[in-house]
Amino acid sequence: MKISVVGLGFVGLSLASFLATKGFNVIGIDNNDEKRGKIIQGQSPFFEPRLQNLLRKALKMKLEISDDFSLIKDSDFIFVTVGTPQKEDGSIELSFIKKAAKSIAKNINGGKNKPIILIKSTVVPGTIENNIMPILEKNSKKQVDKEFGLISNPEFLQEGSAVKNTKYPHLIVLGGSSTKFLEKTNKFFLSLHPNTPIIKTNYQTAELIKYANNSFLATKISFINQIANICERVPNSNIDDIAKAIGMDPRIGNLFLNAGPGFGGSCLPKDLKAIINFAKKTGSDSTFLNAVEDVNKTQINNIISIIKKSLGTLERKRITVLGISFKPNTDDIRESKSIELIKKLINNKANVIVHDPKSQKNTYQIFGNKIEYSDTLVDSIKKSQCMIIMTEWNEYRDINNSLLKNMKKKLVIDCRRILSDQKLDAEYYAIGIGKD
Ligand code: UDX
Predict the structure, then answer these.
(1) b vs e for 66-95, b when ≥16 Cβ sit within 10 Å of the residue's Cβ?
(2) Which residues contact 273 (CB under 8 A, 6 or more apart)?
(3) Tell me, what's the pLDDT at 430?
(4) pLDDT (tens digit, 9 = 90+) per residue, 202-245?
(5) Is 231 a catalytic residue?
(6) Whose C-alpha lies nearest to ligand 1, atom 9?
(7) Ligand 1 pocket, residues with Cβ under 6 angstroms
(8) Are 322 and 335 contacting, i.e. CB atoms less than 8 angstroms apart?
(9) Which of 126, 316, 352, 436 is most buried (CB neighbours < 10 A)?
(10) Is the pLDDT of residue 80 over 80?
(11) What pLDDT is recorded for position 385?
(12) How many helices (H) does the chain have, and how many strands (E)?
């Protein structure tokens, strides 16, 4: 069986590598020369635990990397995993996926088999039928559901767990209009993931499932963050105990109730904006989703207020930001709340110094010499007047009194409560913990 994967980001590269290690002939297509160069050498172009090992195994087996779409000819399955980035108004940019669809169509044109094209990229309801299907039919001169299959197959993997989620997905969603192609795809996924439930539905519902899923995750986070803000005004109250308790109610569930500085990353903020924009276009009300977004916007202001309460003006104050990636185990800083925080600190004329085990390089691309960078945790807090833990990297869990001695003023703001059990000789604030 031959499988092609178009777009080698987190989703595409993990999938292509996984499928190759399962013994399929896999063609991975990407138009970024630098990225391809690294992948061919067995290097992951971004930091993702376990991916490099899987990629190296895959390259020794049957994974071929190229920018040449003609190689996808005669594929049985073609996965589309290109990005659908956010536009200014919150809607999604379709130019990459349209271009990919055109190239795919042109290259299945002469083929004799009936390939199945699976759209993994996140797109708003109606996109597959109204935008992608016509491009595929026009440029391939083939008819959907007769000469080729077209399936919506949204992806739920999390950065930092991309390999695990690709090997063991919790759910597979297939949306389409042909029972024959849906069944064929179902059989293929069953052979790969015999224990994973599969939901078969139509295009629009499958497209909307992805947005409903991500906006619900965002909802849980904004909900717990709002309760955390209330906790901060209730002496001695503790958001972690509250999250643990409500998480034991099976109707609520214990995941995604970790209060913090707000959600970031390349998906949750973008998908929430896109569904709000989509709701508006369809004339639906989005009051609730707007509130989820609004809560996420206020978290950083709360952090700034805490610092100001203790330091007064921030002008020329040396402030350390620990953790820039939007979560641990990734070097991805897209929509990271740390970026928003640093921008606000700069606007307040603070001297900012940052530390992150993996994303200093990416951070430099945004701030250049406007801030300082430290390779070590110790140096980053030397003479600092405030330390803000933004990302729960494991190494920050070891911060203790002897390390704090190097600070000029021992003000610690712990947005992830990783030090809340330690007796720190410092002015300590944590999101979601009420001062007595
Ligand atoms: C998300 C979805 O989880 C995934 O299913 C989808 O396919 C892509 O988008 P990802 O972007 O990798 O995945 O990040 P995720 O692990 O969901 O975290 C998003 C943000 O929420 C991070 O900034 C994280 O710190 C924050 N978060 C998450 C919390 O603040 N509290 C939580 O309890 C969970």
Answers:
(1) beebebbbebbbbbbbbbbebeeebbbebe
(2) 86, 90, 293
(3) 97
(4) 999 999 999 999 999 999 999 999 999 999 999 999 999 999 99
(5) no
(6) 267
(7) 155-159, 214, 217, 221, 256-258, 260, 263-268, 326-327
(8) no
(9) 352
(10) yes
(11) 98
(12) 16, 14
Mutate to test the pocket of ligand 1, among 268, 341, 359, 414 (most ligand atoms within 8 A of CB): 268
399 has pLDDT over 90: yes
Active-site position among 231, 267, 386, 415: 267
For residues 24 and 386, give the distance between their C-alpha atoms in angstroms, rounded to a whole number.
Answer: 53
Average pLDDT rounded to a whole number, residues 24-41: 98
Q: Tokens 């990005």 identify what position?
A: 83
- What atom in ligand 1 is closest to the CA of residue 330? 12
- Nearest ligand 1 atom to the CA of 256 is 33
Which residue's alpha carbon is at the smallest distance from atom 14 of ligand 1?
158
Mutate to test the pocket of ligand 1, among 46, 219, 221 (most ligand atoms within 8 A of CB): 221
pTM of the model: 0.97
**For residues 404 and 216, what is the distance between their CA atoms, to the nearest angstrom?**
39
> From the CA of 66, how far away is ligand 1's center (Å)?
31
Length of the chain: 436
3-state secondary structure of 374: coil
List the residue whose alpha carbon is closest to atom 21 of ligand 1. 263
CB 154 within 8 A of CB 122: yes
Phi and psi at 321, nearest 5°, equal -110, 120
Q: What's the gap in Å between 216 CA and the centre of ligand 1?
A: 11
**What confidence score (pLDDT) does residue 111 get?**
75
Round to whole Å and give the CA distance between 430 and 70.
Answer: 55
Please tell me the predicted confidence (pLDDT) of residue 235.
97
* CA–centroid distance, residue 270 to ligand 1 (Å): 12
pLDDT in tens, 129-179: 999 999 999 999 999 999 999 999 999 999 999 999 999 999 999 999 999
Residues 6+ apart with CB under 8 A from 45: 8, 13, 34, 35, 38, 39
| Average pLDDT of span 83-93 | 94
